């Protein structure tokens, strides 16, 4: 080998070594922990998380560990396992925020970046938080109710309603607060009457159906006739309530059912079918887009944090990122079905 060729070979090897070092320095490790489910909203979210991690890891070359836990203790164990793997960032969707507070503090104390998704941990500040804009959803709902019942309110009528919340987490608290604040600030605050304590559905359509059926079977007929509105925090809950209303309407032909509107959250394909067929005697629906695919944004935020980059043009540390919603009723449901947001949600199959 000539001296010149030898020198070129050495240079080439050094370039490869340096390039390899740069690539190695650019790689990172990301851990993700979510609740456990194989169906419903959470099941879709898990599927979207796996799909996003698989696609982005192939594109960017990072390593990841994905764990699920159906209760707080299992999520804690999953986080401890991931911590031993020494990740650069962890994305956590906590089931019970307060029960995971200590392990969350341990993660931050270890120098690992922590992204909290969907449910906040009170009194704790991670690297960043990201969630659907639940309070704005509630405010949009309140504003819609004021417009929808405008004529009745101006006539001095009372709007009676039932409310079906998801659970006791910050999600339901924020959605209820947003709606209540808008109504309380209006001239008609005393004309909205909730006739029953909140029903906690645990996000279950079956439980919501049972609760609605129990109320219909035990309430005074006049109270049933006077019901104007049913507020829910989730489209699957809407589905359960609708089954109960249809059963009641079909089995009590002489009964009067005057519910005019049901609210939901989700933009779920199956619930949107409500627009295509009448509910009971023709009840309207308004829902607010909140998708299982939102978890993809949490993973994208985690990737940006691991790489030391901004997210959506903003510095990440200490920030709360809110994913905006879309109001969907009969006036724009077809437009929504053709939107990119709808297409992304149903870009994967759970079968």
Largest sheet: 7 strands, mixed
Number of contiguous helices: 14
The whole-angstrom Rg is 25 Å
CATH fold assignment of the largest domain:
Rossmann fold
What structural class do helix, strand and pairing data support? alpha/beta
Spatial shape: elongated
Helicity range: 40-55%
| Top CATH class of the largest domain | Alpha Beta
> Which spans have pLDDT < 50 for at least 5 consecutive residues?
3-25
The beta-strand count equals: 13
Helix/strand order, N-terminal first: HEHEHEHEEHHEHEEHHEHEHEHEEHH
Overall mean pLDDT stands at 90
- Count of all domains: 2
Write the layout of secondary structure elements.
Layout: H1 3-26, E1 29-35, H2 40-60, E2 63-69, H3 72-84, E3 89-92, H4 101-109, E4 113-117, E5 128-132, H5 134-148, H6 150-154, E6 159-165, H7 170-184, E7 192-194, E8 199-200, H8 205-218, H9 221-226, E9 227-232, H10 235-251, E10 261-266, H11 269-272, E11 284-289, H12 294-307, E12 319-323, E13 327-328, H13 333-337, H14 340-345
Helix pairs in contact: 2-12, 5-7, 8-10
Quick recap:
The protein is an alpha/beta fold and 351 residues long.
Structure overview:
- With 351 residues, this protein is an alpha/beta fold.
- It folds into two domains: 28-126 and 292-324, Rossmann fold; 134-289, Rossmann fold.
- It has helices at residues 3-26, 40-60, 72-84, 101-109, 134-148, 150-154, 170-184, 205-218, 221-226, 235-251, 269-272, 294-307, 333-337, 340-345; strands spanning 29-35, 63-69, 89-92, 113-117, 128-132, 159-165, 192-194, 199-200, 227-232, 261-266, 284-289, 319-323, 327-328.
- The strands form two sheets. Strands 6, 7, 8, 9, 10, 11 and 13 form a seven-stranded mixed beta sheet that branches. The chain has a six-stranded parallel beta sheet with strand order 2-1-3-4-5-12, sandwiched between helices.
- It is elongated.
- The model is unreliable at 3-25 (pLDDT under 50).
């Amino acid at each position: 080998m000539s001296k010149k060729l030898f020198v070129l070979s050495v240079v080439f090897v050094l370039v490869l070594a340096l390039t390899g070092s740069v690539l190695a320095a650019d790689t990172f490790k990301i851990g993700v922990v979510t609740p456990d489910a194989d169906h419903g909203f959470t099941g879709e979210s898990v599927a979207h998380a796996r799909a996003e991690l698989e696609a982005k890891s192939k594109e960017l070359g990072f390593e990841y560990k994905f764990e699920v836990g159906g209760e707080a203790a299992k999520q804690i164990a999953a986080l401890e396992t991931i911590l031993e793997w020494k990740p650069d960032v962890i994305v956590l969707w906590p089931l019970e925020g307060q029960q995971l507070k200590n392990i969350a503090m341990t993660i931050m104390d270890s120098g690992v970046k922590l992204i909290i998704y969907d449910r906040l941990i009170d009194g704790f500040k991670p690297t960043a938080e990201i969630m659907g804009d639940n309070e704005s959803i509630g405010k949009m709902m309140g504003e819609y109710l004021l417009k929808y019942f405008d004529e009745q309110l101006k006539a001095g009528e009372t709007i009676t309603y039932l409310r079906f919340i998801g659970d006791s987490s910050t999600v339901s608290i924020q959605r209820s607060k947003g709606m209540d604040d808008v109504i309380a600030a209006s001239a008609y605050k005393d004309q909205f009457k909730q006739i029953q304590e909140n029903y906690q559905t645990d996000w279950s359509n079956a439980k919501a159906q049972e609760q609605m059926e129990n109320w219909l079977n035990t309430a005074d007929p006049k109270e049933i006739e006077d019901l104007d509105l049913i507020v829910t925090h989730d489209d699957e809950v809407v589905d359960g309530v609708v089954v109960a209303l249809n059963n009641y309407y079909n089995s009590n032909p002489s009964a009067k059912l005057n519910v005019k509107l049901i609210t939901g959250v989700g933009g779920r394909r199956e619930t949107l079918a409500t627009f295509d067929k009448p509910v009971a005697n023709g009840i309207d629906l308004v829902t607010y887009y909140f998708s299982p695919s939102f978890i993809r944004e949490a993973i994208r935020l985690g990737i940006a944090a691991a790489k030391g980059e901004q997210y959506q043009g903003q510095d990440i540390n200490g920030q709360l990122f809110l994913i905006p919603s879309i109001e969907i009723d009969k006036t724009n449901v077809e437009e929504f079905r053709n939107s990119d947001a709808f297409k992304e949600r149903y870009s994967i199959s759970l079968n």
